[in-house]
Specification:
Largest sheet: 7 strands, antiparallel
Strand order of the largest sheet: 1-22-19-24-17-14-13
Shape: globular
Distance between the termini: 52 Å
Number of strands: 26
Order of helices and strands: EEEEEEEEEEHEEEEEEEEEEEEEEEEH
Structural class: mainly beta
Oligomer: single chain
Radius of gyration: 18 Å
Number of helices: 2
């Protein structure tokens, strides 16, 4: 069993663009080495948007050296990028962008969501890439809700939705550069589950809703991040109320981490090069 280490508290809510009120759970300036290969996690807790005409979201911006994973729980986005990809990401869907050598993209509330209004709830996770992949060709994966397998837990304790990696023989659809498990876990009140997770991996979970106990020893409330030791082969979670968790587990990358804004590389020189390449249009541009 992995030893429970500590709770990390999310920041107060702030806006990303004008469409996403998020809590910064962690970022590459505070926990990058401890939580490698994970660099950043923002959580947009449920927020009600009234019907409107204003196009809310985040305008065109670049990334390099990382992957960004957006898990949509409620609401709907429209995405465009410099690779020519576009489309909607709705409740239950997942968008997995491999920025690698460079990509430019924008994300806005869909026209329909803007017109009718509704509740938005999403999480965005940044995952580091090893140095040998940081300049690889950019890529894009979208997984609709129906494409993501859900596994029932024993004794009707809840479910595990496997986005990436594997849970007891069920594999998620995401193609990853490093061994990664990314799961949505739903637990019924007063139920518990043992989650098998590899020895040596970084392991943590964010409580999206409810109250749980980690390894039967520490309460973890909504908005809290539970962090575990890498040694050991699993964790135990018991729900005090109906609860939802985002479980992240991955093989650490033992390389320097240097980040600034939307770029995370291995040296300051690479960061400076990324800004120069972006300014000179070497990361492409959005189609008209």
């Amino acid at each position: 069993m992995k030893k429970f280490l500590r709770i990390h508290l999310s920041s107060a809510t702030h806006w990303v663009g004008n469409g996403f009120p998020v809590r910064s759970v962690f970022n590459y300036n505070d926990l990058a080495l401890e939580l490698s290969p994970f660099l950043l996690l923002d959580y947009a807790a449920p927020h009600k948007f009234p019907p409107g005409k204003e196009r809310r979201g985040v305008d065109a911006h670049p990334h390099r050296g990382i992957e960004t994973v957006t898990v949509a729980y409620q609401g709907e986005l429209e995405h465009r990028d410099s690779l020519g990809n576009g489309g909607k990401v709705g409740a239950g869907d997942v968008q997995w962008i491999t920025a690698a050598g460079g990509i430019i993209h924008e994300e806005f509330h869909s026209n329909e969501f803007t017109h009718h209004g509704g509740t938005l709830e999403m999480a965005q996770l940044w995952i580091n890439l090893p140095a040998k992949y940081k300049h690889a060709k950019a890529g894009y994966q979208t997984f609709l809700k129906a494409q993501i397998p859900t596994v029932a837990l024993p004794q009707d304790a809840g479910t595990v939705r496997v986005i990436a990696g594997e849970y007891k023989g069920t594999k998620g659809p995401a193609r990853t550069f490093m061994p990664i498990n990314l799961w949505d876990v739903n637990l019924h009140a007063n139920q518990s589950v043992e989650l098998p997770l590899p020895d040596g991996h970084t392991t943590a979970f964010l409580v999206l809703q409810g109250d749980v106990m980690a390894n039967d020893e520490r309460p973890v409330d909504a908005g809290d991040l539970a962090i575990f030791d890498r040694a050991g082969d699993g964790i135990t979670v018991k729900a005090k109320t109906d609860s939802r968790l985002l479980v992240m587990d991955g093989e650490p990358i033992d390389e320097p981490i240097v980040g600034q804004g939307p770029f995370v590389m291995n040296s300051k020189a690479e960061i400076e090069q990324a800004f120069e390449d972006y300014k000179l249009g070497r990361m492409g541009e959005l189609p008209d």
